[in-house]
Specification:
The strands form two sheets. Strands 2-3-4-5-7-8-9-10 form an eight-stranded antiparallel beta barrel. The radius of gyration is 14 Å and the shape is globular. It is built from no helices and ten strands. The chain starts with 10 loop residues before the first strand and ends with a strand. By secondary structure, the chain is mainly beta.
Length: 136
């Protein structure tokens, strides 16, 4: 059964804009993973032993519907949705994160991704990844 079969949790883009989140699950004591949002860009960084090793930049937006197509006209615009679309300009890949839950009292967001598609003729996929992130 697909994790995308029923989307119930809808969030506003203002929750993400100009915010920083840290992955709290799965836990790796050697690495701290952070997601930093602007109004139109998501920076994903991994910090090894106290220093930033690299940061990947993605365009992103929220959507109420799940399609395999990244709509660049939605980037940077106010929206609401239950899917977070991210586009990697370097490898031209789209990842679609389903918003599974949001605990408002603890600022914990749970997202799950089972869909990655390459823009163009070849589609790629992988195993389902579930992350829990805490807003900093």
């Amino acid at each position: 059964m697909s994790i995308f079969s029923k989307a119930e949790v809808t969030l506003q883009s203002t929750l993400f804009s100009n915010s920083e989140w840290e992955i709290v699950y799965p836990i790796d004591d050697r690495i701290v993973h952070r997601w930093k949002f602007s109004s139109s860009e998501l920076g994903v960084s991994a910090i090894f032993k106290g220093r930033k090793s690299h940061e990947l930049k993605y365009s992103y937006y929220l959507s109420k519907s799940n399609t395999e197509t990244f709509d660049s006209s939605k980037v940077g615009k106010y929206s609401s949705g239950c899917y977070l679309y991210e586009y990697n300009k370097v490898n031209k890949a789209v990842s679609i994160w389903k918003i599974v839950s949001f605990d408002n009292s603890n600022n914990i967001l749970t997202v799950s991704c089972e869909s990655q598609a390459e823009i163009g003729s070849t589609a790629i996929g992988g195993k389902t990844v579930t992350l829990r992130l805490k807003r900093l």
